[in-house]
Design brief:
Helix 2 packs across helix 3. Helix content is 66%, strand content 0%.
């Protein structure tokens, strides 16, 4: 029996310590969309896969294949998102921080971003 996309998605999230909220924030997809994917109430679309793949630290083409969707030339030939592994790791770490620690991390990130523009 082939695993369902929802089961694989849950496994990927568990392996990376990601909550639905963390994937939602990292992918700019509504948390309700992530929850519906996990419940099997909606099927993944190429657009959703493109958005959540970096948060899951997996290549878009691989996640498209797992979802049973056709891989596109863009997905197979495009380079991975810039620093997607590090961004995924950061999301994973951030999802386990306390509220105060998360606020500190966001503050640090904002300062780094503003320094980059100076």
């Amino acid at each position: 029996m082939t695993p369902h996309f929802a089961d694989i998605l849950l496994g990927l999230m568990d392996n990376r310590g990601l909550s639905p909220r963390a994937v939602s924030r990292a992918s700019a997809r509504a948390e309700s969309t992530i929850l519906q994917l996990l419940d099997g109430r909606i099927m993944p679309s190429p657009e959703i896969v493109r958005d959540i793949a970096p948060a899951l630290q997996i290549a878009e083409a691989d996640l498209l294949t797992i979802a049973g969707l056709a891989t596109t030339a863009r997905a197979t030939s495009a380079r991975p998102y810039r620093n997607s592994t590090e961004i995924g790791e950061l999301v994973s770490i951030a999802s386990s921080l306390s509220d105060g620690q998360l606020e500190q991390l966001v503050g640090i990130a904002r300062r780094l971003k503003s320094e980059d523009h100076d």
